[in-house]
Design a protein that fits this description.
With 135 residues, this protein is α+β, with helices and mostly antiparallel strands. It has helices spanning 17-34, 65-75, 95-103, 121-127; strands at residues 5-12, 42-43, 49-50, 58-63, 80-86, 112-120, 132-133. It has four helices and seven strands; from the N terminus they run E-H-E-E-E-H-E-H-E-H-E. A five-stranded mixed beta sheet has the order 5-6-1-4-7, with helices on both faces. The chain is globular.
């Protein structure tokens, strides 16, 4: 299946493994919750049904905090959707506190540890130019 959009995630390169997994999961809930990317449920041979997943591939990249901040500033001028995760969210335990924490910072002061973007393939690829694929 060919898509006219692309989904990419950037994770700060100094995170612990559990943090990378946690941030990726949260960022994708932001993208999948607002975009029409979810496919049909999965059903095994025994007829057991499982939840559907994204129909689109998701590319994961590594970046420094400065690279992500620069990319965010550029992304804000494009026709893309953006999900963010900041370092402070590792210390909060619910969605209300998460939103309150983000609201304390100006855009340029966000301490980004993860950014997910979905948009036109060419725009997303340009935004992630120079970012290494996560290893």
């Amino acid at each position: 299946m060919d898509f006219d959009t692309k989904i990419k995630i950037a994770l700060r390169d100094d995170l612990e493994m559990w943090q990378k997994l946690n941030v990726t999961a949260f960022l994708m809930t932001g993208i999948s919750g607002t975009q029409n990317i979810i496919g049909q449920p999965y059903v095994d041979k025994d007829g057991v049904q499982y939840l559907p997943m994204s129909q689109q591939p998701i590319m994961i990249h590594s970046a420094s905090g400065a690279q992500m901040q620069e990319m965010l500033q550029k992304a804000l001028t494009k026709d893309v959707v953006i999900s963010i995760y900041t370092e402070e969210l590792f210390k909060t335990y619910n969605d209300e506190d998460n939103r309150a924490m983000i609201a304390q910072f100006a855009t340029q002061d966000l301490n980004l540890v993860g950014v997910a973007i979905r948009g036109n393939k060419n725009q997303v690829d340009r935004l992630f130019k120079g970012f290494d694929l996560h290893k």
